[in-house]
Amino acid sequence: MHHTITSFLTEDHSRCDDLWTRTEDAVQAQRGARDAWNAFRTAIDRHFRMEEEALFPALERAVGGRFPPVGVMLMEHRQMRELFTQLDAAIAAGDVDEFSGLSQTLLIVMEQHNLKEQNILYPTADRALGATTATILEQMTALGS
User: Fold this and answer.
1) CB 56 within 8 A of CB 68
2) Separation CA 26–CA 5 (nearest Å)
3) In Å, how far are 31, 48, 114 from 95, measured between CA atoms?
4) CA-to-CA distance for 75 and 116, rounded, in angstroms?
5) Does the model's pTM come out above 0.90?
6) 107: CB partners within 8 A, 6+ apart
7) Cα pseudo-dihedral 79, 49, 33, 107, rounded to 10
8) What is the pLDDT of residues 57-97, one digit of tens each?
C-alpha cells in the first residue's frame, strides 16, 4: 500500500514506461504491435485520468486556486494525446519509420514530463494534501479499476 502520491504515481510511471518499451519492441519486430499499443494506451489513459480527475483538482483546492504547474502538466498531456493519435495512425498503417520518428518525440516529452511530476509536482502534492492524501490515493485507485 502506498502512502504518498509520489510513490504511487512514480510506480505507475514505471509501469507505463515498461508498456511503452514493449510497444516499441513490438512495432520494430512487426509482431503484436496493436496489442502492445492498446495495453500502453489503456495504462497511460488511466494514469492521466487519475491525475486529471483526482490529483490535480485536489491539489488546486489545497493551494486555494489555480496552480501553474498543473496547467503545464495538462498542456503536456494534450501534447502527448496529439502524438498518440499520430502514433495510432502509424501503427494502423504499419509505417515503422513514421512510428519510430514519432516515438522518439514522445519519449522525450514523457521523460521530461515524468521528471517534473516526480521531482516537483508529486512532492508538492504530498506536502499540500497532508491528511487528505489517503483519500486522494483511494480516489486514484478507484479510477484505475
Assistant:
1) no
2) 31
3) 13, 27, 27
4) 13
5) yes
6) 20
7) 40
8) 999 999 999 999 999 999 999 999 999 999 999 999 999 99
Cell digits for 79? 501534447
| Fold for the domain defined by 5-143 | Four Helix Bundle (Hemerythrin (Met), subunit A) (1.20.120)
List the chain domain ranges.
5-143
DSSP secondary structure, 56-101, as one string = HHHHHHHHTS--HHHHHHHHHHHHHHHHHHHHHHHHHHT-HHHHHH
- Quote the cell numbers at residue 1: 500500500
- The span from the CA of 103 to the CA of 125, in Å, is 30
Nearest-angstrom CA–CA distance, 41 and 69: 24
**Calpha distance 137→27 (Å, rounded):** 34
Q: Which three cell numbers stand for residue 48?
A: 492521466
